[in-house]
Amino acid sequence: MKLKVCGLKYSDNIRQVAELNPDYMGFIFYEGSKRFVGEDFVMPLISESIRKAGVFVNASEEYILEKVKKYGLSIVQLHGDESPEFCQKLAIHIPVIKAFGVDENFKLEMLEPYFGHCSFFLFDNKAETFGGSAQPFNWEVLINYNNATPYFIAGGMDLERFRKIDALKLNVYGVDVNSRIEIKPGYKDIIKVIQFRNNIR
Q1: What is the per-residue pLDDT across 6-16, written as a single tens digit (0 to 9) for each?
Q2: Rg over CA atoms, the chain
Q3: Which of 4, 112, 144, 176 has a beta carbon 3.0–4.6 Å from 24's, enabling a disulfide?
């Protein structure tokens, strides 16, 4: 299982997390987020073994590809209302993670138009604002997921919650950790990152 540490913002903290060699590190390019890196963000040097993910919400293809080039992103995460056609078009240039908010109205059939256009899916708790609510969703909706597209689970992910993945026998590709391992928005608690890394590996 892969570890994705998302919502990183501060250079010194980014370097600390990178030293722990997570599989993915996520950087948010959405002004509405408390973890928005800002337009003057300077990307610290990060090992090429770590995939740098840029998180976008309803951004234009031009804006996304500009950030991909500027920061050497290796994958993009679309967390808005992006269409299957948009994902297909963007995937010509870079691998795509398409995020979906899950609530009581979510159905696995909603994913079908995106099949073949995304390298990964990410499932998060549906919130009124984009980017999740730091709360978990009912993972049981994923028990019958049988598509070849691998997926991440996000949403209030902490160690206690993480340990329930095996109990449900979910075929999870990776976990996305963010707010529950923070000291403040955008600044991660290194001890908690280490605990996650050790539990996963």
Answers
A1: 999 999 999 99
A2: 16
A3: 4
Q: Is 111 left (phi over 0), alpha (psi -120 to 50) or beta?
A: alpha
Sign of CA dihedral 53, 58, 61, 66: negative
DSSP 36: B
Structural domains in the chain, CATH included, are 2-200 (3.20.20.70)
CA angle 117, 118, 121 (to 5 degrees): 140
| Residue whose token pair is 């804006």 | 63
Enter the tokens of residue 97: 């993670």
Angle between helix 11-19 and 190-200 (nearest 10): 30
Contacts of 148 (CB under 8 A, 6+ apart): none
**Greatest pairwise CA separation for the chain in angstroms:** 44
- pLDDT (tens digit, 9 = 90+) per residue, 55-77? 999 999 999 999 999 999 999 99
How many other β-carbons are positioned within 10 Å of the β-carbon of residue 170?
A: 15
Q: What pTM does this model have? A: 0.94
Which pLDDT value is given to residue 132?
54
| pLDDT tens per residue across span 139-149 | 888 998 999 99
